[in-house]
Design goal:
By secondary structure, the chain is an alpha+beta fold. It folds into two domains: 300 residues, Zn peptidases (Aminopeptidase); 136 residues, Roll (Aminopeptidase i, Domain 2), CATH 2.30.250.10. Helix content is 29%, strand content 24%.
Amino acid sequence: MENKELLKKISYKSSNIYEKSSDKEIKEMFEFCEGYKTFLDASKTERECVETATKMAKNAGFRDMDGVDTLNPGDKVYKINRDKNIFLLVVGTEDIKNGFHLVGSHIDSPRLDLKPNPLFEAEEIALLKTHYYGGIKKYQWTTIPFAMHGVVYLQSGKKVTLNIGENIGDPIFCVTDLLPHLADEQVKKPAHKAIDGEKLNVFVGTIPVNDDDIKDKVKFNILKYLYETYEIIEEDFLSAEIEIVPAGPARDAGFDRSVVAAYGHDDRVCAYSALDAILHTENNKKTAVCMLVDKEETGSSGNTGFQSRFFEFAMTQMIAKLSGSCDILKLNEIFARSQCLSGDVSAAVDPNYTDVFEKANSAFLNHGVAVNKYTGARGKSGTSDANSEFLQEIRKLFHDNDVAWQICELGKVDGGGGGTIAQYVANHNIDTLDCGTAILSMHAPMELASKADIFMTYKAYHSFFNMK
Protein backbone atom coordinates (compact mmCIF):
# COMPACT_ATOMS: atom_id res chain seq x y z
CA MET A 1 0.00 0.00 0.00
CA GLU A 2 1.38 3.40 -0.99
CA ASN A 3 1.91 6.00 1.71
CA LYS A 4 -0.81 8.25 0.27
CA GLU A 5 -3.36 5.43 0.47
CA LEU A 6 -2.13 4.43 3.91
CA LEU A 7 -2.41 8.02 5.13
CA LYS A 8 -6.02 8.16 3.97
CA LYS A 9 -6.77 4.92 5.79
CA ILE A 10 -5.15 5.67 9.14
CA SER A 11 -5.61 9.44 9.53
CA TYR A 12 -8.78 11.33 10.49
CA LYS A 13 -10.23 14.69 9.56
CA SER A 14 -13.87 15.72 9.30
CA SER A 15 -14.96 16.98 5.89
CA ASN A 16 -17.48 19.36 4.39
CA ILE A 17 -20.79 17.59 3.75
CA TYR A 18 -21.45 19.43 0.51
CA GLU A 19 -18.27 18.09 -1.10
CA LYS A 20 -19.76 14.58 -1.15
CA SER A 21 -23.51 15.28 -1.34
CA SER A 22 -25.66 14.79 -4.43
CA ASP A 23 -28.17 17.38 -5.60
CA LYS A 24 -30.93 15.11 -4.29
CA GLU A 25 -29.35 14.96 -0.84
CA ILE A 26 -28.87 18.73 -0.72
CA LYS A 27 -32.51 19.22 -1.69
CA GLU A 28 -33.55 16.92 1.17
CA MET A 29 -31.47 18.94 3.65
CA PHE A 30 -32.95 22.22 2.48
CA GLU A 31 -36.52 20.91 2.52
CA PHE A 32 -36.10 19.63 6.09
CA CYS A 33 -35.06 23.11 7.18
CA GLU A 34 -38.23 24.67 5.76
CA GLY A 35 -40.17 22.75 8.40
CA TYR A 36 -37.67 23.84 11.02
CA LYS A 37 -38.06 27.52 10.09
CA THR A 38 -41.84 27.19 10.39
CA PHE A 39 -41.36 25.67 13.85
CA LEU A 40 -39.06 28.52 14.92
CA ASP A 41 -41.50 31.19 13.77
CA ALA A 42 -44.30 29.61 15.80
CA SER A 43 -42.14 28.90 18.87
CA LYS A 44 -40.44 32.00 20.26
CA THR A 45 -41.01 30.90 23.89
CA GLU A 46 -40.95 27.61 25.75
CA ARG A 47 -44.76 27.66 26.11
CA GLU A 48 -45.12 28.14 22.36
CA CYS A 49 -42.64 25.33 21.72
CA VAL A 50 -44.73 22.92 23.79
CA GLU A 51 -47.93 24.08 22.11
CA THR A 52 -46.44 23.59 18.63
CA ALA A 53 -44.87 20.23 19.58
CA THR A 54 -48.20 19.00 20.95
CA LYS A 55 -50.00 19.85 17.71
CA MET A 56 -47.31 18.08 15.69
CA ALA A 57 -47.48 15.04 17.99
CA LYS A 58 -51.27 14.77 17.75
CA ASN A 59 -51.08 15.02 13.97
CA ALA A 60 -48.58 12.13 14.03
CA GLY A 61 -50.94 9.92 16.05
CA PHE A 62 -49.60 10.53 19.57
CA ARG A 63 -52.07 10.41 22.48
CA ASP A 64 -52.00 12.02 25.91
CA MET A 65 -50.42 9.45 28.24
CA ASP A 66 -52.70 10.50 31.11
CA GLY A 67 -55.67 9.20 29.12
CA VAL A 68 -54.10 5.78 28.44
CA ASP A 69 -54.46 2.91 30.92
CA THR A 70 -51.93 0.51 29.39
CA LEU A 71 -49.10 0.77 26.89
CA ASN A 72 -47.98 -1.76 24.29
CA PRO A 73 -45.23 -1.91 21.65
CA GLY A 74 -45.85 0.67 18.95
CA ASP A 75 -47.93 2.99 21.13
CA LYS A 76 -47.13 6.69 20.85
CA VAL A 77 -47.90 9.01 23.75
CA TYR A 78 -46.94 12.39 25.20
CA LYS A 79 -47.14 14.10 28.59
CA ILE A 80 -47.00 17.83 29.35
CA ASN A 81 -45.69 19.53 32.48
CA ARG A 82 -46.93 23.06 33.24
CA ASP A 83 -47.03 23.93 29.52
CA LYS A 84 -43.22 24.22 29.52
CA ASN A 85 -42.05 20.58 29.23
CA ILE A 86 -43.18 17.85 26.91
CA PHE A 87 -42.29 14.16 27.21
CA LEU A 88 -42.90 11.98 24.15
CA LEU A 89 -42.32 8.28 23.67
CA VAL A 90 -42.75 5.49 21.19
CA VAL A 91 -42.90 2.09 22.91
CA GLY A 92 -40.33 -0.31 21.50
CA THR A 93 -40.60 -4.02 20.76
CA GLU A 94 -37.94 -4.88 23.38
CA ASP A 95 -38.84 -5.20 27.05
CA ILE A 96 -38.46 -1.87 28.85
CA LYS A 97 -36.36 -3.62 31.51
CA ASN A 98 -33.50 -3.47 28.99
CA GLY A 99 -33.59 0.32 29.00
CA PHE A 100 -34.67 3.08 26.64
CA HIS A 101 -33.11 5.60 24.27
CA LEU A 102 -33.58 9.23 25.28
CA VAL A 103 -32.88 12.44 23.40
CA GLY A 104 -33.18 15.40 25.75
CA SER A 105 -33.07 19.02 24.70
CA HIS A 106 -34.08 22.41 26.05
CA ILE A 107 -36.55 24.86 24.56
CA ASP A 108 -35.74 28.01 26.52
CA SER A 109 -33.49 30.65 24.96
CA PRO A 110 -31.81 33.86 26.18
CA ARG A 111 -34.20 36.81 26.19
CA LEU A 112 -35.50 39.76 28.22
CA ASP A 113 -38.22 39.05 30.79
CA LEU A 114 -40.49 41.78 32.11
CA LYS A 115 -40.10 42.54 35.79
CA PRO A 116 -43.20 42.09 38.01
CA ASN A 117 -43.67 45.88 38.18
CA PRO A 118 -42.44 46.84 34.71
CA LEU A 119 -44.28 49.91 33.46
CA PHE A 120 -42.96 53.40 34.22
CA GLU A 121 -42.64 56.81 32.64
CA ALA A 122 -39.45 58.89 32.39
CA GLU A 123 -38.89 62.06 30.38
CA GLU A 124 -42.36 61.65 28.85
CA ILE A 125 -41.54 58.20 27.46
CA ALA A 126 -43.22 54.98 28.64
CA LEU A 127 -40.87 52.06 29.25
CA LEU A 128 -40.95 48.50 30.56
CA LYS A 129 -38.32 47.27 33.03
CA THR A 130 -36.72 43.91 32.21
CA HIS A 131 -34.51 41.30 33.79
CA TYR A 132 -32.42 39.48 31.20
CA TYR A 133 -32.66 35.69 31.11
CA GLY A 134 -29.61 33.52 30.45
CA GLY A 135 -26.10 34.51 29.47
CA ILE A 136 -26.17 37.41 27.03
CA LYS A 137 -23.90 40.17 25.78
CA LYS A 138 -26.13 43.04 26.82
CA TYR A 139 -24.90 45.40 24.12
CA GLN A 140 -26.28 43.03 21.46
CA TRP A 141 -29.83 43.55 22.77
CA THR A 142 -30.15 47.26 22.04
CA THR A 143 -31.57 49.00 18.95
CA ILE A 144 -33.07 45.88 17.38
CA PRO A 145 -36.77 45.11 16.80
CA PHE A 146 -38.44 43.11 19.55
CA ALA A 147 -41.73 41.27 19.85
CA MET A 148 -43.70 40.68 23.04
CA HIS A 149 -44.82 37.12 23.80
CA GLY A 150 -46.37 35.72 26.93
CA VAL A 151 -49.37 35.06 29.13
CA VAL A 152 -51.26 37.34 31.48
CA TYR A 153 -53.89 36.14 33.93
CA LEU A 154 -56.55 38.73 34.78
CA GLN A 155 -58.06 39.09 38.23
CA SER A 156 -61.07 37.18 36.90
CA GLY A 157 -58.84 34.21 36.08
CA LYS A 158 -59.11 34.74 32.35
CA LYS A 159 -55.91 33.94 30.45
CA VAL A 160 -54.69 36.47 27.88
CA THR A 161 -52.05 35.35 25.39
CA LEU A 162 -49.81 38.05 23.91
CA ASN A 163 -47.98 37.86 20.60
CA ILE A 164 -47.23 41.40 19.40
CA GLY A 165 -44.57 42.41 16.93
CA GLU A 166 -44.30 39.42 14.62
CA ASN A 167 -46.77 40.46 11.92
CA ILE A 168 -46.09 43.24 9.41
CA GLY A 169 -48.89 45.42 10.78
CA ASP A 170 -47.85 45.01 14.42
CA PRO A 171 -45.89 47.60 16.37
CA ILE A 172 -42.46 46.49 17.52
CA PHE A 173 -40.53 47.36 20.67
CA CYS A 174 -36.88 48.22 21.27
CA VAL A 175 -34.18 49.10 23.79
CA THR A 176 -32.45 52.39 23.03
CA ASP A 177 -28.71 53.06 23.11
CA LEU A 178 -26.55 56.16 23.45
CA LEU A 179 -25.53 57.99 20.31
CA PRO A 180 -21.78 57.75 19.50
CA HIS A 181 -21.43 61.55 19.70
CA LEU A 182 -22.11 61.39 23.46
CA ALA A 183 -20.69 57.97 24.23
CA ASP A 184 -17.06 58.77 25.05
CA GLU A 185 -17.34 57.41 28.59
CA GLN A 186 -19.52 54.47 27.57
CA VAL A 187 -17.14 53.14 24.92
CA LYS A 188 -14.21 53.25 27.35
CA LYS A 189 -15.89 50.60 29.49
CA PRO A 190 -15.32 46.84 28.99
CA ALA A 191 -17.93 45.41 26.63
CA HIS A 192 -19.74 43.56 29.43
CA LYS A 193 -20.20 46.82 31.34
CA ALA A 194 -21.03 49.15 28.45
CA ILE A 195 -24.75 48.44 28.89
CA ASP A 196 -26.07 48.12 32.43
CA GLY A 197 -28.70 45.45 33.05
CA GLU A 198 -31.01 48.02 34.64
CA LYS A 199 -30.93 50.06 31.43
CA LEU A 200 -32.39 47.29 29.27
CA ASN A 201 -35.72 49.08 29.44
CA VAL A 202 -38.10 48.52 26.53
CA PHE A 203 -39.63 51.50 24.74
CA VAL A 204 -43.46 51.24 24.51
CA GLY A 205 -44.89 54.70 23.81
CA THR A 206 -44.81 58.52 23.94
CA ILE A 207 -48.36 59.90 23.57
CA PRO A 208 -49.75 61.53 26.76
CA VAL A 209 -53.39 61.59 27.77
CA ASN A 210 -54.85 65.08 27.59
CA ASP A 211 -55.75 65.39 31.28
CA ASP A 212 -53.95 67.65 33.75
CA ASP A 213 -55.21 65.59 36.68
CA ILE A 214 -53.04 62.67 35.61
CA LYS A 215 -49.38 62.75 36.68
CA ASP A 216 -47.73 60.17 34.40
CA LYS A 217 -49.77 60.90 31.28
CA VAL A 218 -47.92 58.62 28.85
CA LYS A 219 -47.94 55.69 31.28
CA PHE A 220 -51.67 56.22 31.80
CA ASN A 221 -52.26 56.14 28.06
CA ILE A 222 -50.41 52.81 27.79
CA LEU A 223 -52.43 51.37 30.69
CA LYS A 224 -55.62 52.62 29.07
CA TYR A 225 -54.65 50.91 25.78
CA LEU A 226 -53.88 47.62 27.57
CA TYR A 227 -57.18 47.74 29.45
CA GLU A 228 -59.29 48.60 26.41
CA THR A 229 -57.53 46.07 24.16
CA TYR A 230 -56.81 43.14 26.50
CA GLU A 231 -58.64 43.97 29.78
CA ILE A 232 -55.21 44.06 31.44
CA ILE A 233 -54.74 46.29 34.50
CA GLU A 234 -51.38 47.15 36.06
CA GLU A 235 -51.73 44.64 38.90
CA ASP A 236 -52.03 41.82 36.32
CA PHE A 237 -48.35 42.25 35.53
CA LEU A 238 -47.55 40.83 38.98
CA SER A 239 -48.58 37.33 37.89
CA ALA A 240 -47.73 37.59 34.19
CA GLU A 241 -45.02 35.83 32.20
CA ILE A 242 -44.05 38.18 29.38
CA GLU A 243 -40.92 37.67 27.29
CA ILE A 244 -39.28 40.21 25.00
CA VAL A 245 -37.72 38.38 22.06
CA PRO A 246 -36.23 39.37 18.69
CA ALA A 247 -39.01 40.02 16.19
CA GLY A 248 -39.26 38.57 12.72
CA PRO A 249 -39.10 35.21 10.96
CA ALA A 250 -36.26 32.77 10.47
CA ARG A 251 -34.48 33.57 7.21
CA ASP A 252 -32.02 31.98 4.81
CA ALA A 253 -28.55 33.53 4.98
CA GLY A 254 -25.89 33.73 2.28
CA PHE A 255 -26.14 33.82 -1.50
CA ASP A 256 -26.25 30.02 -1.48
CA ARG A 257 -28.95 29.92 1.22
CA SER A 258 -26.91 27.32 3.09
CA VAL A 259 -27.53 28.75 6.55
CA VAL A 260 -30.62 29.50 8.66
CA ALA A 261 -30.42 32.84 10.46
CA ALA A 262 -32.81 33.03 13.41
CA TYR A 263 -33.37 33.71 17.07
CA GLY A 264 -33.40 30.63 19.30
CA HIS A 265 -31.25 28.03 17.52
CA ASP A 266 -29.94 27.42 21.06
CA ASP A 267 -31.59 25.10 21.58
CA ARG A 268 -34.64 24.78 19.42
CA VAL A 269 -32.52 23.38 16.61
CA CYS A 270 -31.88 20.22 18.64
CA ALA A 271 -35.40 20.26 20.10
CA TYR A 272 -37.01 20.30 16.66
CA SER A 273 -34.62 17.66 15.31
CA ALA A 274 -35.42 15.37 18.26
CA LEU A 275 -39.14 16.04 17.99
CA ASP A 276 -39.25 15.35 14.25
CA ALA A 277 -37.11 12.24 14.73
CA ILE A 278 -39.46 10.68 17.28
CA LEU A 279 -42.51 11.61 15.22
CA HIS A 280 -41.00 9.52 12.40
CA THR A 281 -39.98 6.57 14.58
CA GLU A 282 -41.67 3.25 13.78
CA ASN A 283 -41.02 -0.38 14.76
CA ASN A 284 -38.18 0.64 17.05
CA LYS A 285 -36.47 -1.96 19.22
CA LYS A 286 -35.70 0.23 22.23
CA THR A 287 -38.43 2.46 23.61
CA ALA A 288 -37.74 5.95 22.23
CA VAL A 289 -38.12 8.94 24.54
CA CYS A 290 -37.90 12.63 23.65
CA MET A 291 -37.80 15.13 26.51
CA LEU A 292 -38.01 18.88 25.84
CA VAL A 293 -37.33 20.96 28.94
CA ASP A 294 -37.13 24.51 30.23
CA LYS A 295 -34.62 26.50 32.31
CA GLU A 296 -31.37 25.11 30.87
CA GLU A 297 -30.06 28.64 30.37
CA THR A 298 -30.36 29.29 34.11
CA GLY A 299 -29.09 25.95 35.44
CA SER A 300 -31.90 23.46 34.66
CA SER A 301 -33.44 24.15 38.07
CA GLY A 302 -37.08 24.74 39.02
CA ASN A 303 -40.06 22.49 38.43
CA THR A 304 -39.76 22.78 34.62
CA GLY A 305 -35.99 22.27 34.38
CA PHE A 306 -34.41 18.86 33.92
CA GLN A 307 -33.44 18.74 37.59
CA SER A 308 -37.13 18.58 38.53
CA ARG A 309 -38.80 15.25 39.33
CA PHE A 310 -41.00 15.40 36.23
CA PHE A 311 -38.74 13.14 34.17
CA GLU A 312 -38.72 10.45 36.87
CA PHE A 313 -42.48 10.81 37.31
CA ALA A 314 -43.18 10.48 33.59
CA MET A 315 -40.85 7.45 33.31
CA THR A 316 -42.42 5.79 36.36
CA GLN A 317 -45.89 6.34 34.93
CA MET A 318 -44.82 4.95 31.56
CA ILE A 319 -43.20 1.85 33.06
CA ALA A 320 -46.25 1.16 35.24
CA LYS A 321 -48.53 1.38 32.21
CA LEU A 322 -46.25 -1.05 30.37
CA SER A 323 -45.63 -3.63 33.08
CA GLY A 324 -48.32 -3.05 35.70
CA SER A 325 -46.09 -1.51 38.36
CA CYS A 326 -42.88 0.41 38.93
CA ASP A 327 -40.93 0.76 42.16
CA ILE A 328 -37.70 2.67 42.76
CA LEU A 329 -35.57 -0.45 42.26
CA LYS A 330 -37.09 -1.24 38.88
CA LEU A 331 -36.79 2.41 37.80
CA ASN A 332 -33.11 2.58 38.72
CA GLU A 333 -32.36 -0.75 37.02
CA ILE A 334 -33.96 0.55 33.82
CA PHE A 335 -32.07 3.84 34.03
CA ALA A 336 -28.78 1.95 34.39
CA ARG A 337 -29.46 0.14 31.10
CA SER A 338 -30.53 3.27 29.21
CA GLN A 339 -28.71 5.70 26.95
CA CYS A 340 -29.15 9.38 26.16
CA LEU A 341 -28.04 11.85 23.53
CA SER A 342 -28.12 15.24 25.20
CA GLY A 343 -29.15 17.52 22.37
CA ASP A 344 -27.59 20.94 22.71
CA VAL A 345 -25.71 23.27 20.42
CA SER A 346 -21.95 23.67 20.28
CA ALA A 347 -19.77 26.51 19.02
CA ALA A 348 -18.70 26.46 15.39
CA VAL A 349 -15.33 27.96 14.51
CA ASP A 350 -15.84 31.62 13.58
CA PRO A 351 -13.25 32.93 11.07
CA ASN A 352 -13.43 36.34 12.78
CA TYR A 353 -12.47 34.90 16.18
CA THR A 354 -10.23 31.89 15.56
CA ASP A 355 -7.98 32.70 18.53
CA VAL A 356 -10.49 31.25 21.05
CA PHE A 357 -10.69 27.86 19.31
CA GLU A 358 -8.30 24.92 19.25
CA LYS A 359 -9.08 23.93 15.69
CA ALA A 360 -8.12 20.26 15.85
CA ASN A 361 -10.82 19.78 18.47
CA SER A 362 -13.46 22.27 17.33
CA ALA A 363 -16.61 22.06 15.23
CA PHE A 364 -16.97 23.58 11.77
CA LEU A 365 -20.07 24.56 9.84
CA ASN A 366 -21.18 21.93 7.29
CA HIS A 367 -19.13 19.14 8.91
CA GLY A 368 -22.09 17.38 10.51
CA VAL A 369 -23.63 16.94 13.93
CA ALA A 370 -21.22 17.96 16.71
CA VAL A 371 -20.39 15.44 19.45
CA ASN A 372 -18.93 16.61 22.76
CA LYS A 373 -17.53 13.80 24.90
CA TYR A 374 -17.50 16.34 27.71
CA THR A 375 -18.50 19.95 28.19
CA GLY A 376 -18.01 22.04 31.32
CA ALA A 377 -15.59 24.88 31.96
CA ARG A 378 -11.82 24.65 32.46
CA GLY A 379 -10.91 21.38 34.20
CA LYS A 380 -14.20 19.89 32.86
CA SER A 381 -16.16 21.43 35.73
CA GLY A 382 -19.84 20.59 35.42
CA THR A 383 -19.49 17.79 32.89
CA SER A 384 -20.76 14.22 32.68
CA ASP A 385 -17.86 13.03 30.43
CA ALA A 386 -19.27 10.13 28.41
CA ASN A 387 -17.48 6.81 28.68
CA SER A 388 -15.54 5.32 25.79
CA GLU A 389 -17.86 2.32 25.40
CA PHE A 390 -20.93 4.47 24.74
CA LEU A 391 -19.04 6.84 22.46
CA GLN A 392 -17.87 3.90 20.38
CA GLU A 393 -21.45 2.62 20.04
CA ILE A 394 -22.56 6.02 18.75
CA ARG A 395 -19.54 6.25 16.46
CA LYS A 396 -20.47 2.92 14.86
CA LEU A 397 -24.15 3.90 14.68
CA PHE A 398 -23.35 7.10 12.80
CA HIS A 399 -21.00 5.35 10.40
CA ASP A 400 -23.56 2.62 9.70
CA ASN A 401 -26.30 5.19 9.00
CA ASP A 402 -24.24 7.69 6.97
CA VAL A 403 -24.55 10.40 9.61
CA ALA A 404 -21.90 13.06 9.06
CA TRP A 405 -20.47 13.92 12.46
CA GLN A 406 -17.54 15.66 14.10
CA ILE A 407 -16.12 15.67 17.61
CA CYS A 408 -15.35 18.89 19.43
CA GLU A 409 -14.81 20.91 22.56
CA LEU A 410 -16.31 24.30 23.38
CA GLY A 411 -13.23 26.46 22.82
CA LYS A 412 -9.72 26.33 24.27
CA VAL A 413 -9.12 24.68 27.63
CA ASP A 414 -8.81 27.88 29.66
CA GLY A 415 -11.01 29.94 27.37
CA GLY A 416 -14.34 29.35 29.07
CA GLY A 417 -16.69 26.52 28.20
CA GLY A 418 -20.34 25.77 28.91
CA GLY A 419 -22.81 23.24 30.19
CA THR A 420 -25.89 21.31 29.05
CA ILE A 421 -28.50 19.06 30.63
CA ALA A 422 -26.14 16.08 30.14
CA GLN A 423 -24.83 16.08 33.70
CA TYR A 424 -28.37 15.95 35.14
CA VAL A 425 -29.36 13.06 32.90
CA ALA A 426 -26.14 11.23 33.77
CA ASN A 427 -26.93 11.72 37.48
CA HIS A 428 -29.68 9.13 36.94
CA ASN A 429 -26.97 6.61 36.02
CA ILE A 430 -27.86 6.87 32.32
CA ASP A 431 -25.07 6.74 29.73
CA THR A 432 -25.11 10.25 28.28
CA LEU A 433 -23.35 11.99 25.40
CA ASP A 434 -23.69 15.58 24.18
CA CYS A 435 -24.68 15.61 20.52
CA GLY A 436 -26.10 18.62 18.68
CA THR A 437 -25.70 21.33 16.07
CA ALA A 438 -22.72 23.69 15.96
CA ILE A 439 -23.74 27.32 15.46
CA LEU A 440 -22.27 30.79 15.05
CA SER A 441 -23.13 33.76 17.33
CA MET A 442 -24.52 31.60 20.14
CA HIS A 443 -26.79 33.50 22.59
CA ALA A 444 -27.03 36.49 20.24
CA PRO A 445 -30.44 37.81 19.10
CA MET A 446 -29.70 36.18 15.74
CA GLU A 447 -27.74 32.93 15.48
CA LEU A 448 -26.54 31.05 12.39
CA ALA A 449 -26.89 27.30 11.77
CA SER A 450 -25.91 25.24 8.74
CA LYS A 451 -28.77 23.48 6.96
CA ALA A 452 -26.55 20.45 6.39
CA ASP A 453 -25.70 20.26 10.09
CA ILE A 454 -29.35 20.69 11.11
CA PHE A 455 -30.36 17.79 8.90
CA MET A 456 -27.52 15.61 10.20
CA THR A 457 -28.66 16.38 13.76
CA TYR A 458 -32.09 15.04 12.86
CA LYS A 459 -30.53 12.03 11.15
CA ALA A 460 -28.37 11.32 14.21
CA TYR A 461 -31.37 11.33 16.56
CA HIS A 462 -33.52 9.29 14.19
CA SER A 463 -30.85 6.59 13.87
CA PHE A 464 -30.46 6.55 17.67
CA PHE A 465 -34.20 6.06 18.21
CA ASN A 466 -34.22 3.26 15.65
CA MET A 467 -30.95 1.63 16.78
CA LYS A 468 -31.00 -2.16 16.50
